[in-house]
Specification:
The protein has a four-stranded mixed β-sheet with strand order 3-2-1-4. The chain has two helices and four strands. It is about 20% helix and about 35% strand. A hairpin with a 5-residue loop joins β2 and β3. The longest helix has 13 residues.
């Protein structure tokens, strides 16, 4: 299948982890950060990437970038549904 690709996400954090950012009252610009990627399987071309929180808005934005590249039609996606947070964080 031409243009078949894999999607993955990598977790990191900016300044501190999400729990600490929440407890110290830091704004949304710090805490957990995810890098969403879509890589074409045979050429290893990066079709789309996006950095942001793991939420619906950022996931949809990544999907729109992937759609603009033409890759969404050939998607074999890992689930990008937001992970439920513990203690409402």
């Amino acid at each position: 299948m031409p243009n078949e690709h894999d999607q993955n996400g990598m977790w990191g954090f900016i300044h501190c982890k999400e729990k600490t950012a929440f407890l110290k009252g830091y704004g949304p610009e710090v805490g957990d950060c995810y890098v969403f990627t879509a890589i074409e399987r045979t050429t290893k071309l990066v079709l789309a990437f996006h950095c942001g929180k793991r939420d619906v808005d950022n996931t949809e934005y990544f999907a729109s970038k992937l759609n603009m590249s033409g890759g969404l039609r050939q998607s074999r996606a890992v689930s990008f549904l937001p992970t439920p947070c513990v203690d409402g964080q």
